[in-house]
Amino acid sequence: MSRLNKKRVVLIVTGGIAAYKALELVRCLRDDGAAVNVVMTAAAEHFVGRLSFQALSSEPVHTDLLDARAEGAMGHIELARWADIVIVAPATADFMARLRHGLADDLATTLCLATVAPILVAPAMNRQMWLNAATVDNTAVLKIRGIVFVGPDAGAQACGETGPGRMALPADIVAAAGALFPAGMLAGRRLMVTAGPTREAIDPVRYISNKSSGKMGYAIAQAAAEAGAEVILVSGPTRLSSPVRVHRTAVISADEMYDAVMAVVDDVDIFVACAAVADYRVEAPAQQKRKKDNHSLNLTLTPTRDILQSVTARPTPPFAVGFAAETEDLLQNARSKLERKSLDMIAANQVGIEGLGFDSNDNELYVLWKGGEQHLAKASKDVIARQLIGLVADRCHSRA
Ligand code: C5P
Questions:
Q1: How far apart (Å, rounded) are the C-alpha atoms in residues 351 and 324?
Q2: One of 28, 159, 274, 396 is an active-site residue; which one?
Q3: Active site residue 396
Q4: Stretch 136-143: mean pLDDT, rounded?
Q5: How far is the CA of 273 from the centre of ligand 1 (A)?
Q6: Which of 23, 24, 195, 196 could covalently link to 238 via disulfide, CB atoms 3.0 to 4.6 Å apart?
Q7: For 258-279, what is each residue's pLDDT tens digit?
């Protein structure tokens, strides 16, 4: 299976004579199973018509940053988030200079600034322009920032000269793009993980929450990304920064987490519910800050929806992994939760022990599934997460 299978590619075409070769590139990407959205700069439209790209990609071509209609369909930020990879082919000297300086005055440059996806650049220009110190300098800076280059090739140029500056062959660009997606244990799989606590408002400034730091869920997101999965992290409020190559959606309350999960769960292969979701929320949070008085205060709490159980109740549920934080009868409670919530796997940890679980850097897990179990001895959450992802990969391959 191609590494680009089911990958979402934003192809930026800038204004050079090699733009016609980008048509062939769209075809190669689609042959490899990728979905392609094409963005053209104004200059690119002087070389190739947008209809050709539209026909080959089967998607409308994006050209304007501030086109209200296009923004309504898929705005620049949405497109930036949609991308698993952004390919700029051909990339002119001018575009590389603008990318280096972080300009955001058109759709193509803005997208490159707004995306967390890897950016692959295939330069194409006159050989003297490629060898010019300014371009050499721009290339070096862009490489330091993690932008990946493919080509240019050397040979006869449209301007009549011979030398470096021809756009890399479409097949080479596809291969370079594929190489950015590691063929790990979870390559080609989409995994969603919830992490952190939720906050349930009492009034505009107060809330009910719990001690979860989010560290375990974030470590799982990172381990899954390292294993080649496409990772969606739905996170309650934490102080952690998102691991690289992970799409993070930030939420506050259990209700918001439920909506964020349900919006995409039918498109994921694996769901890991690591969040410490509040079991209750305040039925009627006050609209204004509550004033202090000397009477006792009663809050009516109402149960939140169980996200994990709603996921396993889907018609075709993903491989579902739950967590069980227990203060007593750990294994017995975890086994019954495995069955009650129709899970494929559950990771149980004893809470209330100094140095383990909530808000600490270490953890110890008992991982249970139908017909098996494994103890993951105390280690850092990063190590535990990698071991857990190994078990998930094994079990979900044997289920598939
Ligand atoms: O039943 P209990 O809350 O102990 O189950 C814990 C598991 O269920 C965890 O995986 C947690 O993320 C998930 N959960 C959920 N939605 C809730 C409550 C718990 O997804 N509202």
A1: 9
A2: 159
A3: no
A4: 93
A5: 7
A6: 196
A7: 999 999 999 999 999 999 999 9
CA dist 220 and 232 (Å) reads 11
Give the residues across from 47 on adjacent strands. Answer: none
Is the domain of 200 the same as that of 343?
yes
Which of residues 124, 145, 179 is at a domain's end?
179
pLDDT by residue (tens digit) across 28-54? 999 999 999 999 999 999 999 999 999
Question: Each residue of 327-342: pLDDT tens digit?
Answer: 889 999 999 999 999 9
Amino acid, res. 4? L
What does the pLDDT average to over 70-94? Answer: 86
Residue 258 Cβ < 6 Å to ligand 1: no
Residue 121 lies in a domain: yes
46: number of CA atoms within 13 Å, CB side? 6
Could you tell me the residue range of the domain that residue 44 belongs to? 8-179
In angstroms, what is the span from residue 78 Cα to ligand 1's centroid? 30
Greatest CA separation for the chain: 88
Number of domains in the chain: 2
Residues 171 and 194 in one domain: no
